[in-house]
Amino acid sequence: MTSAIAVDGLRKSFGSTKVLDGIDFEVAEGTTFALLGPNGSGKTTTVQILSTLIHSDGGQVRVAGHDLAGEPQKVRGAIGVTGQFSAVDDLLTGAENLMLMADLHHLDRAEGRRRTEELLDQFDLGEAAKRLASTYSGGMRRRLDLAMTLIGRPRVIFLDEPTTGLDPRSRRMMWQTVRDLVAGGVTIFLTTQYLEEADQLADRIAVLDGGKLVAVGTPEELKRGLPGGHVRLTFPDAATLQAAARVLNNQPDDETLTIDVPGSGVRELRLLLDKLDQAGVEVADLSLHTPDLDDVFHALTERAEVTR
Amino acid sequence: MSDAMTMVRRNFRHTQRNPGAIIMTIGLPVVLLLLFVGVFGGALQAGSRSGTDYINYVVAGVLLMTVGYGATTTALAVNRDVTTGVIARFRTMAISRASVLTGHVVGSTVRTLLSAVLVVLVAFALGLRVHGGPLGWLAAAGLLALLTIAMTWLGVAAGLSAKTAEGVAPFTLVIQLLPFLSSAFVPPESMTGAVRWFAAHEPFTPIIDTLRGLLLGTSVGDRWLVAVGWCLVLALLGYVWARALFRRDPNR
Lengths: 308, 252
Description:
The structure holds 2 protein chains of 2 kinds.
Chain A: E1 3-14, E2 17-28, E3 32-36, H1 43-50, E4 58-63, E5 66-67, H2 72-78, E6 79-83, H3 94-104, H4 109-122, H5 138-150, E7 156-160, H6 168-183, E8 187-192, H7 195-201, E9 204-209, E10 212-217, H8 219-224, E11 230-234, H9 238-248, E12 258-262, H10 266-278, E13 285-289, H11 293-307
Parallel strand pairs in A: 3-8, 3-9, 6-7, 7-8
Antiparallel strand pairs in A: 1-2, 1-4, 4-5, 9-10, 11-12, 11-13
Helix pairs in contact in A: 3-4, 3-5
Chain B: H1 2-17, H2 19-47, H3 54-84, H4 86-91, H5 99-125, H6 133-161, H7 169-177, H8 193-201, H9 204-216, H10 223-247
Helix pairs in contact in B: 1-5, 2-3, 2-5, 3-5, 3-6, 3-7, 3-9, 5-6, 6-9, 6-10, 9-10
C-alpha cells in the first residue's frame, strides 16, 4: 500500500526549545492515524508543518505523494485542515463561508451552491445557514469548519484536536464523519488528547513525548506491549489471604486482603481459579484489569519523563 | 487573479457586516470636517492672513485623515484575520498566496475613496469653492488613490505584525497624529521651533500641499514630484514589509 504521509527525521525548534527531535512515521492511504501526546508535546506543531503552514528545520516529508519542501502548493491542493489554529470567518454566514471555500477551489457557481447545500445538510447546519458564524455554538463552529475543509474533496485531512470541548453528541457525530470519510478512501491524520478517541478511530497510533515518538503501533499492539493486565483477587479474611499467598507464591496486600496476579487472559484465569479450588481456598471477589490506552499513555510518557 | 476577486468580495461582505468599519471609514471623516469647519474654523480663519475661507484650506487635510482612518480599519481587519486563524486556513489552501492581502487593499481603497467623495460633497455644501478644473481634479483623485494604496499597504503590514488588536494602536497613533504636525490644518509657518521644522519636512506636508493646490487651482510648482515620490516610497515600504511578514512562519 502507498503512503499518504511519509515523515523521516522531522525536526523543529522554536528558539532554543526543541519541539520535534527527529520523528519518523508513515500513514497508509485510506487509514486513520492518531498522534497522541500531553499538552505542549508538539502535536499542533507537527500538523502545522505537515499542512505547509510553517517550515521544519530538517527532515523529509511527503504528503499525498508530493515533497513538502519542494512542492508545497501541490500538497495544499491535496489536503484539508481543520483545527485549533485554523478558523471559520465570523463575519460571514455559514453558507457564505462554504461558498467562499467553493470559490477558492474554483468550483463553478452551480456546483459550489450544490456542494454547499449538501454539506449544510450533512452537518446539520441547514437551519443556521443564513446566520453569522459568530453566533454559532462551539459544536456548530467545529462542524462548519470540517464542512469547509470537505468542499474541495481533499485526499488527506488533518484534524487538530477535532473534538476538544465538544459535548458527547457532537463528538459521536464527528467520529461518524471521520469513519465515513475513511470508508470513502480519505486518509485522516488526527491529533487528540482523548485516548478513547484514538482507540475508537485510529488504525495506528503514535505517542509523542519530549520531541520524540515514544511508541507507534495499532491500539492493540500498544496495549499488548504493556504489562498492565492483572487479576485482582479479594479474600474473606487474613488467614485465607495467607493461604492463597502460599498457593500462588505471590505478595499479598494485608490491608485490602487482595492479591494481584499478572495476566488477564481466559486460560490464565482458568488455571488460577483451578489452583485455588484444589487448595480449598475461598475467593470472596474477583476483578479483571485489562490495560487500556490510558495505561499505555501514562506508562509511556512517565518512562520518558524519567529518562529525560 | 480570481482568488483575489473572491477575497475582494469577502472584504465587501465584511464591510456590510461590520457597522464599526463603515462609521470609522465613511462617517468619521465627515464628522471631522464638520468639527474643523464649525468649531475651529472661525478661530483659525481669524488667525490666517490668506483671506480664503478656512474650508478651502482644510478640505485637503480632512481627506488625508480619511485615508488614515481607512488604513487603520484595514490594519484591524488584517489583524483580526491573523488572530482568529482565518489566514492560517487560507495559507494551507492551494490559492494565490497574497490574494487575501490584495482583497484587503482593494476593498479598503474603494471604501476610502467613497468616503473621500462624501467628504468633498459635504465640503461643497459647507461652502467649498474650487478652481482646479477637471484636469486638476483628476490629478488630485489620482494622488489621493496613490496615497490610499500606500497607506493601506502600511496598514496591512501593521496588522500582520501586531500580535493582538491592541498591538495595532501605535500604527493608529502615528497615522492620526502626523497630519496634525503637517500643513493639514494650519500652515507650518504658524508653528514654532522643532515642530515647525518637522511639519515642513514630513511626507504628509508636500502631499497635502499638492492635493490642496490641485483642488483649489493654485500653483503647485514642483511640489507634486516630492508628493508622488513620497507616496511611491511609502507604498513600496508597506508592500515589501507586508510581504516579508506574510512569508515568514506565523507565530504559534
